[in-house]
Amino acid sequence: MPMQYVNWIAGIFQGDFGTSLYYNEDVGHLIAERMPITIYLGFMAFIVSGILGISFGVICALRRGTWIDTVVTFLANIGITMPAFWLGIILIYLIALKAGLLPVHGYTSPFEEFWLSIRQAIMPVICLSLFSIASLTRLTRSSMLEVVKQDYIRTAWAKGLRERMIILRHTIKNALIPVITVMGLQIAFIFGGAVLIETVFNIPGIGRLMTSSILEQDFQVVQAGTLIIATVVVLANLIVDISYGWLDPRIRYE
Amino acid sequence: MSDSETAARSGDIAEWEEAPPQYSEIKRIFSVFFGRPLPVIGLFIIVILILAAIFAPLIAPYDPYKMDILHKLQPPNREHLLGTDSLGRDTLSRIIYGSRTSLIVGISAIGFSTIIGLTLGLIAAFFGGALYQIIMRFIDALMAFPMLLLALLIASLLGVGMKNVIIALAIGMIAPPSRMMCGVAMSIKENDYILAARAMGVSNTRIMLEQILPNAFPPLLVMITIGLGATILAEAALSFLGIGITPPTAAWGGMVNDGYKFLLTSPVLAISPGVAIMLVVFGFNMMGDGLRDALDPRLRGVV
Q1: Is B54 at the interface with chain A, CB within 8 A?
Q2: CB pair distance less than 8 Å for A77 and B38
Q3: Residues within 8 A of A (CB atoms), B 120-159 only
Q4: Over chain B, what is the mean pLDDT?
Q5: pLDDT means per 10 residues in chain B (303 residues)?
Q6: What is the ipTM, given to two decimal places?
Q7: What is the pLDDT of residue B18?
Q8: Mind listing the pLDDT tens digit for each residue in B88-132?
Q9: CB of A85 within 8 Å of any CB in chain B?
Q10: Any idea where the domains of chain A sit in the sequence?
Q11: A238–B contact, CB cutoff 8 A
């Protein structure tokens, strides 16, 4: 057993992930084929959730107590509870089957047919990002409200800075520190969600490869896929950690 | 607090000393929790869930496992309020029985992960040194895997079934309580009263359990409540993928998967169990938020 593990690790360093029992193909090849699809959708979901989540949160905090705040906060509370796979099914039913606005499922590379690819990606990206949008909205809102109370914001007002300046430079920048931490954690969530969403939308990414390999007991693929996903998550978190230095000068990396 | 300050400053100090303000922590917690609508709605949903799980045989109009091929895939009607599935089973009854599955899996998985997580966190923080490094690096490694993927892997190694889903989800949820416990214990253990206890010859185990552990109670309560929602969601996801609770046992995730195949003809099959999942997770989240604001608003964003 330990010897097998050592051999496996040694193989990985030479780019050999073993052979899939089910597909009878090189595992490294199988994963290299599917990983870009998952990263493509996951990256879009990450960007969308970052932009929308933070803007919704900021708007809620600035318009605190108005109807916008109430509605968006309520929607965010619904958003963190909705099962992503179920949302996918609802979207397929309403938008694709009933209204016929978007293709039901599948995946096309953006280099082959750009518009079809974008149209096919809309619903999966919504499903992948919904949870992140909702939780980032909630977090940004409470973080902003926390920062507004700080002394340095009062000082900024007292100095006679313009409101725009105070909100952009002082409030948002400080409020984003905890948000960035959570964004790092969202990367793992998005990859976890990919397993479900790729199954619902029939997308040949690494998530669906993992599910089908688990069901087929194809452990070579499962092992390698897990290793790759964990590596990507760790790398993404590293990037997030480095970005702290820019937001918070108190944090320095030696 | 500002009121009492101004009162003290504005004059009658003698009176203030005579009657210290009566201040009940429990009363305050209750008033904050019940003061806003969302936590109360959450609590209401959870109470209904628990009642439905306990009294399922009394509430459910039909036997959730009784097949009736002649009446399969019926749309909602007077006899079957949410219609029937592909084997002619009553959807409403299966949703009611599914609450049992969700609650059993959720409570057991959170129970195990909390106990293991707290123990690991306490030991790491209390003994420090190499033990701290080993345990926390292990937790870090766990966190590198998406929780769902980790549960998926463990479930695939163990095989399907309720017991294995519980084990898989419990392992997937160990990281949050252990990190929280470790953080709390690290800040508490420097206090003088821990030193005093040690000087009095109190054993390490008793210091950990009686002096340090209670400090983690407020964040823990919030964590467990919100964690229950997350676990129920994860169980539904596993069952949806066919790696969790297997048919014929009524599980909401499995029902959504089952209904997905008949989306065009009877959408209610896939939609209704999803609504049940959403309501329950919403209930736990809102209750958790309410508890957090009532117990300690500083925990915002931490738990």
Answers
A1: no
A2: yes
A3: 143-149, 152-153, 156
A4: 81
A5: 48 54 72 81 90 83 72 71 74 86 92 92 86 88 80 81 88 88 84 84 83 83 88 89 79 85 81 90 89 72 46
A6: 0.80
A7: 58
A8: 778 888 888 888 889 999 999 999 999 999 999 888 888 878 888
A9: yes
A10: 2-247
A11: no
Please give the average per-residue pLDDT across A99-104, as a whole number: 74
Note whether B145 contacts A146, CB cutoff 8 Å. no
Q: Do B301 and A215 touch (CB under 8 A)?
A: no
Q: Which of B146, B147, B300 sits opposite A142 (nearest CB)?
A: B300
Distance of residue B7 Cα from the nearest chain A Cα, in angstroms: 24
Predicted TM-score (pTM) of this structure: 0.83
The architecture (CATH level 2) of A2-247 comes to Orthogonal Bundle (1.10)
Which two structure tokens, joined as six digits, stand for B214? 């209670």
